[in-house]
Write a structure and sequence with these properties.
four-stranded antiparallel β-sheet; five-stranded antiparallel β-sheet; about 30% helix; about 180 residues; Cyclic Phosphodiesterase, Chain: A; alpha+beta; 4 helices
């Protein structure tokens, strides 16, 4: 199964992100947009995962989260991976960048022990809004994003990590919560 570790978002933030998708989608060509139920802040994408190692991963994630305090996060502004002419992924930024980066680094260290190959030096905290198809030209979408660049989607308190399974379907990914690990430090 495919899996990832993320910070869940409250409905208030998800509603704001859904409104952004609604505003941006008329400017876009060949974009698969995320739905309200799909929004999350990924900290570590594990990819293919053997269910046999999950109890060991759960133990390490519980130990890590027992040392952490809840902290404030904010979703703001737009960004993309790819080029202005041909963006690949459309996203909203997330902060605090330093704390989220440190958490990503800690997760990478834990997961490397289980054979996962994750790179913490390329981590950019974000919430994916949509994925562009291979040859889509979405320069008008990038221009629309530039017009709302300073948009603030709101703040929330990150209270723990969630491990999800990602099932690919013809209608898009379905995320199934496998376990939650509260910050209790």
């Amino acid at each position: 199964m495919r899996s990832f570790i993320s910070i869940a978002l409250p409905d208030t933030i998800k509603v704001q992100l859904s409104a952004a998708v609604k505003r941006l989608s008329p400017q876009a060509v060949d974009v698969t947009w995320c739905t309200k139920d799909q929004f999350h802040l990924t900290l570590a994408f594990m990819g293919e995962t053997s269910p046999a190692i999950l109890p060991h991963v759960y133990e390490k994630l519980s130990q890590l989260c027992a040392t952490l305090q809840p902290f404030s996060c904010r979703a703001y502004g737009y960004g993309f991976f790819g080029t202005k002419r041909n963006p690949k992924t459309i996203w909203v930024g997330a902060e605090p960048i330093q704390e989220l980066g440190a958490l990503n680094e800690a997760l990478c260290e834990i997961l490397k022990r289980f054979g996962f190959k994750l790179e913490s030096d390329t981590f950019r905290p974000h919430i994916t809004l949509g994925r562009c198809k291979e040859r889509a030209r979405n320069h008008p979408l990038v221009l629309a994003m530039d017009e709302e660049q300073q948009l603030d989607f709101g703040s929330w308190t990150a209270e723990g990590l969630t491990l999800y399974e990602s099932r690919l379907t013809p209608k898009g990914s379905i995320y199934i919560k496998l376990n939650r690990f509260p910050f209790s430090g």
